[in-house]
Amino acid sequence: MRHDETATARRTRPGDVAPQSRAPEKSADAFRTISEVAELLDTPAHVLRFWESKFSQIKPMKRGGGRRYYRPEDVALLRGIRELLYEDGLTIKGVQKVLRERGQRHVAGLAEAEAEPAPDVDATLARLEALRNRLRQE
């Protein structure tokens, strides 16, 4: 057996518990890496880097080695830019014009409602009670 086959076999023994694939959720105020932002926005990292070159308002912190860390306000701005480009069909120049005329806050606020929808607690409780009642009847 070759070395790489041995390593693979060692990792996939029957009965082994797979490591957890997802880390715990970060707080809303946490800085995020480009891969985390790419996953949040369902947009490839290379597109985020391209947008950074086209929109001077996107300024992630860069640490040693050029690793990007996005602040919550950077993520909100990226969400708004994504909304304007993909949902509203604007061009890069069109989004640049909106940013110039309406400002970063406007663009960042565009997708804010979609980012974290507020749960309707009363409706959720009503649905859960209805399910509980149905389960009791069966």
UniProtKB/TrEMBL annotation:
Region (Disordered): 1-28
Annotated Pfam families: MerR_1 (PF13411)
Domain of life per record: Bacteria
Gene3D superfamilies in the cross-refs: 1.10.1660.10
UniProt-listed CDD domains: HTH_MlrA-like_sg2
Keywords of this entry: DNA-binding
HTH merR-type domain segment(s): 33-101
GO molecular function, a single term: DNA-binding transcription factor activity
Protein name per Swiss-Prot or TrEMBL: MerR family transcriptional regulator
